[in-house]
Amino acid sequence: MFLFDSETLYNTRKLLTRINAGMLKKWISSIQLARDIWRRKLGLFLFDRAAEKFELKDDIKRIVLVRWDAKWGDSIVSSFVFREWRKAYPGIKIDVITTPNMSGLFKDYFSADHVYEVKKRPSYGELKILASEIGHVDLLVHLSKALKMKDLYFMSKVQANFIAGLDDQVKLVNLKLGRITKNKHFSDKYKMLLEHTGVQQVCADYIVPENESSAINVGQFLSAISGPLLVFNPYGSGGARQLSKSTISDIIETINSERGVVNIVLLTMPDKKDEVALICERYNNVHFYADSRSIYDSIEIMRQADYILSVDTATVHIATGLQKPLLALYNPDEENYKEWHPNNKLSDSIFAQKNNPPNINFFDKSSFKEKIPNLF
After folding, report:
1. I need a surface site. Which of 6, 105, 186, 253 has the fewest CB within 10 A?
2. Burial annotation 83-102 (CB, 10 A radius, 16+ → b, else e)
3. Counting Cβ atoms within 10 Å, is residue 41 exposed (0-12), middle (13-18) or buried (19+)?
4. Which residues have C-beta within 8 Å of that of residue 32, sequence separation ≥ 6?
5. CA distances to 15, 186, 337 from 191, in Å
6. pLDDT for 46-105, tens place per residue?
7. Cα separation of the two ends of the chain
8. Among 131, 158, 143, 145, which residue's Cα sits nearest to residue 196?
9. What is the pTM of this model?
10. Whole-angstrom Cα distance, residue 155 to residue 182?
């Protein structure tokens, strides 16, 4: 007969719960994948059709970008297309389809002529109304790598001369960019799109928004901090890209030990403010902006930074746009890194070890220590 103390029993139950949760997550993911594959095949059967061969004969007068799945990072990476199209075609009209929370970015900072707002999961009826409202366009751009059934339905309803996309299997897509941009960074995919639409000598510098109100408020916050400034973002979207409290502390202590005096400002998320406040209490040189209200505040803090350290998330691309020295932490996903690495000569990267599920905390601490001189 084996006897276990209460701590061993607790840890065993915790491990079994984690294993069961992982198995359940895999099972659900496999069902969702099978469902998406079936829906895509049905969508191709019902809505896909042969389209006219892409051939640029006249100046492009109107482009509509489908960005209803857009996030901040990929929006920054693609931001230069607005500037470059306008340089090539001064009278062009560029419209965007996106969600309400992203509308302001495209309208106020990327100079979209009109933004069509849609909810995250629009119905087929809503998509039909949207297509009718949009009317005729010269070019519809939808750079999703695997178009879904609703995407196909919407594309079949829009009156577009041409459709640009990465999903070469779809016949509706007549400006096919999938094969020719495979394994390229997403900014290069957009450069290829620009070149195929007649834009020469493309400048792919990102547009990083400048918010006047945030600049004033952040300036007041940073005025109390003197000396070199490192901005550290430990939180990405999803648990796999978020550093734990203990890992954040380990990184701060390693930087303090190796670098010496440098002020560190931690970026945070609404549900992480209490955690960040506790971390800051432990160190004299670590701060955070407690009054932060939006990503524009974080951008302005980064604009004033001398160095940036970030997990794989939008701040990597913002740092690139600001041309800041950057050390980025990634999970070991080769395809993701090829397409979304920091497109920045001043950057370096560290990869976490393979783990199932992925976990950004499992990186080699000695490798991180070796990379610190490259950042500073």
Report:
1. 6
2. bbbeebbeebbbbbbbbeeb
3. exposed
4. none
5. 47, 9, 18
6. 999 999 899 888 889 999 999 998 899 999 999 999 999 999 999 999 999 999 999 999
7. 58
8. 143
9. 0.89
10. 23
